[in-house]
């Protein structure tokens, strides 16, 4: 059963969130969409292929990446956001950032969702900001920051630890007045391969929150590790298989690079589910 989805106005089952990295160093498509016109062309293609949410980021969060300044991140994303929102009014846009100033600038331009990989741990004021703009908020779990998060992540029980994290942060968000919340367990963010596998195999635990669940494992290193060191451009089939498993466990949004393939997999999933 689909969870209540009060603010993403595109109906019809699980959704695809297309990734647009306006960065020079993202692990999969870094440098491809720094130019505004190329970014807009890419957004148009993703929408044609079935994306109902476009996630725009100006700072890489790949393991080992270096942070960028507020102004540099704004300079990368705001020109794209300004034009994209005016051109593509039938989709939702999210800003992938941990910075208050970047999120505020994006929301002022009409962005609908803040996708915060730190889950309020870096910038608690994002809760107030989302409440002020009546925006959605992606509450993602991560351990550490991108520069160091994969060095030695530790958990007592990865599922229970993240469940407790969500409980704590949801109370904080709701106290601040945020009502439109998406949960993301943060595949690959401060987690070993075994942690990631455990998360995916037990994903249904998070259905207890009755909130949309977002999964972003597109082309990630865990897929390469399972496939004997497969490079990024050879991880599409593994991505689809992994994401399809999460759909069966209750995922509602797939954050992906390969939008058409993800959309196709959701169509197959919906067709099968309609017979149950």
Describe it for me?
By secondary structure, this protein is α/β, with parallel strands linked by helices. It has one domain: TIM Barrel (Alpha-Beta Barrel), CATH 3.20.20. It is built from nine helices and eight strands. It has helices at 36-48, 70-87, 100-108, 125-133, 158-176, 193-201, 221-226, 236-249, 259-273; strands at residues 15-21, 53-57, 92-96, 113-116, 136-140, 181-184, 214-215, 253-256. It has an eight-stranded parallel beta sheet. Helix 1 crosses helix 2 (70-87). The longest helix is centred in the middle third of the chain and has 19 residues, at 158-176. The protein is globular, with a radius of gyration of 17 Å. The model is unreliable at 6-11 (pLDDT under 50).
Task: Write a concise keyword list for the protein shown above.
single chain, 276 residues, alpha/beta, TIM Barrel, 9 helices, 41% helix, 13% strand
In the CATH scheme, the class would be Alpha Beta
Question: What sequence of helices (H) and strands (E) makes up the elements?
Answer: EHEHEHEHEHEHEHHEH
Q: In percent, how helical is the residue content?
A: 40-55%
Radius of gyration, in angstroms, nearest whole number: 17 Å
Q: Measure the end-to-end span.
A: 11 Å
* CATH architecture field: Alpha-Beta Barrel
Name given to the CATH homologous superfamily: Dihydropteroate synthase-like
Assign the structural class, choosing from mainly alpha, mainly beta, alpha/beta, alpha+beta, or little secondary structure: alpha/beta
Please give the domain count: 1
Task: Characterize the main sheet.
Answer: 8 strands, parallel
> Count the helices. How many?
9
Q: Residue ranges: pLDDT <50 for 5 or more in a row?
A: 6-11
Instruction: For the largest sheet, list the strands in their spatial order.
Output: 6-5-4-3-2-1-8-7
CATH topology description: TIM Barrel
Bulk shape: globular
